UniProtKB/TrEMBL annotation:
An annotated GO BP: glutamate biosynthetic process
Species of provenance: Pontixanthobacter rizhaonensis
Residues at which substrate binds: K94, Q115, K118, G169, S383
Pfam families linked to this entry: ELFV_dehydrog, ELFV_dehydrog_N
Domain Glutamate/phenylalanine/leucine/valine/L-tryptophan dehydrogenase C-terminal stretches: 206-449
Record GO terms (molecular function): glutamate dehydrogenase (NADP+) activity; nucleotide binding
Residues that coordinate or bind NAD(+): T213, N244
Subunit relationships: Homohexamer.
Function: Catalyzes the reversible oxidative deamination of glutamate to alpha-ketoglutarate and ammonia.
Protein name: Glutamate dehydrogenase
Keywords in alphabetical order: NAD, Nucleotide-binding, Oxidoreductase
């Protein structure tokens, strides 16, 4: 058999598993995309002949490096850093940096793969990448975080650039860490350029970038509801996480007249039947970004709320669910519970928070289910706009960026409908996102020939 002959989905996936032993998250992400893309390319020989999906599922490169730094007690600490540059067919590699002890090559490969489709969906010229380290920022002093970020950038700088690869934040990497990394890049290269996004406003950051992922996930949900003649107002929402994405999602749900019942961190979740109001959200933002405390402390501050140690919030009855913490945080049983409790819509602020089995539950129940690569694309979209502003040496105002984010999310929703409408009025947003995201990247790759 010629290597360019059709292989079926099972054979394709067997190859992915063989080439990436033990990389369960990466294999899961490829499987989820491949099952839809296979249906789409079945009669499109050019994509098979050029082995497009196989090429997208093989990162352009995976850079791995040692990060050596000194803690406050003068101990030498050694961590591993990575940058996965998955695909730059439609623009420079773009995607966040994650600092968390659970980071592995598999996790970053899945994130860079997902990012390729997500960035394509935004319509902006950005390829897919992701990076990070198994460094755990929890309990570290500001000086330790600064030294780690500087050491990380001392190696990373040679692999990135404003037209090559533009990292940003993700779990464990927020404004503080971006500042330290940008400062080190500038020091080493003697260049001020838009090499990172998520910067503070004072040095080239964009209005609306901190809010963009969480707000965007709610705008996506709003678009799904509108498509069915519904609205957020008066609905209850269960949200996981309490970081950047979760708190901004909670804020937007509240602004639109919904009631947020839960937030969580890796220790457990809080349930506040009175609703997590803007005042309470502001308190949580301060807790997480300044005091760097645990969500359990919420119950000491606000009466009427309960803390559920070691649990996830999906058993709380709600109309809307927004997983905004991390991958595989919502499994098959939890998806069934949500459906049995009458959930109408799920919008993923996190990347791949629902297991494959959980996704099948939502699919079979035909609820509105917005997968992360579409629903949380608002963050990287505004990052793309930060790149544009840096290139033009200008800053747009908050109102303009807010309008652009709203329009971008509507555009992503409509692309999902275009490729995901099953003809009965139900939209398979997973299929829509996978096919629309794939097509643009695939067509660009076809134009380049064999590279
Ligand atoms: N920051 C951004 O612009 C974007 C983030 N995302 C995704 O959103 C998710 C959250 O990211 P951020 O809010 O930026 O990070 P963050 O660091 O601000 O917050 C992460 C949150 O997740 C919680 N968390 C981490 N591991 C957990 C675990 N094992 N179980 C329960 N909770 C856990 C943390 O306690 C924290 O509340 C991630 O999946 C990230 O990849 C997606 C698109 C863009
Ligand atoms: O803004 C960016 O470039 C990164 C966003 C990101 O990491 C994500 O979309 O998962």
């Amino acid at each position: 058999m010629a290597v360019t002959d059709h292989v079926d989905l099972d054979t394709f996936m067997a190859g992915v598993k063989k080439r990436n032993p033990g990389q369960t998250e990466f294999i899961q992400a490829v499987q989820e995309v491949a099952q839809d893309v296979y249906g789409f390319i079945d009669d499109k020989e050019e994509y098979h002949a050029a082995q497009i999906l196989r090429r997208i599922a093989e990162p352009d490169r995976v850079v791995s490096f040692r990060v050596c730094w000194e803690d406050d007690n003068h101990n030498i600490r050694v961590q591993r850093g990575w940058r996965v540059q998955n695909n730059n067919a439609i623009g420079p590699y773009k995607g966040g940096i994650r600092f968390h002890p659970s980071v592995t090559e598999s996790v970053l490969k899945f994130l860079a793969f997902e990012q390729t489709f997500k960035n394509s969906l935004t319509g902006l010229p950005m390829g897919g990448g992701k990076g990070g380290s198994n460094f755990n920022p929890r309990g570290k002093s500001d000086s330790e975080v600064m030294r780690f970020c500087q050491a990380f950038m001392t190696e990373l700088y040679r692999h990135i650039g404003p037209d090559t690869d533009v990292p940003a934040g993700d779990i464990g990497v927020g404004g503080r860490e971006i500042g330290y990394m940008f400062g080190q890049y500038k020091r080493i290269t003697n260049r001020w350029e838009g090499v990172l996004t998520g910067k503070a406003i004072e040095f080239g950051g964009s209005q609306m970038r901190p809010e963009a992922t969480g707000y965007g996930a709610v705008y996506f949900l709003q678009n799904m509801l509108k498509h069915k003649g519904e609205d957020v107002e008066g609905k209850t929402a269960v949200i996981s996480g309490s970081g950047n994405v979760a708190t901004h999602a909670a804020e937007k749900i509240t602004q639109l007249g919904g009631k947020v019942l839960t937030l969580s961190d890796s220790g457990g979740f809080i349930h506040d039947p009175d609703g997590i109001t803007q005042e309470k959200i502001d308190w949580i933002k301060h807790l997480k970004t300044v005091k760097r405390g645990r969500i359990s402390e919420y119950c000491d501050e606000f009466s009427g709320a309960s803390y559920h140690e070691g649990d996830r919030p999906w058993g709380v009855k709600c109309d809307l669910a927004l997983p905004c913490a991390t991958q595989n945080e919502l499994n098959e049983d939890e998806a069934k519970t949500l459906v049995e409790n009458g959930v109408q819509g799920v919008s993923e602020g996190a990347n791949m928070p629902t297991t494959l089995e959980g996704v099948h539950v939502f699919h079979d129940a035909k609820i509105m289910y917005g997968p992360g690569k579409a629903a949380n694309a608002g963050g990287v979209a505004v990052s793309g706009l930060e790149m544009s502003q840096n290139s033009e040496r200008i800053s747009w105002n908050q109102e303009r960026l807010g309008d652009m984010l709203t329009e971008l999310m509507e555009g992503i929703h409509d692309k999902c409908v275009e490729y995901g409408d099953d003809g009965t009025g139900h939209v398979d947003y997973v299929k829509g996102a996978n096919i629309a995201g794939f097509k643009k990247v695939a067509d660009a790759m076809l134009a380049f020939g064999v590279v």
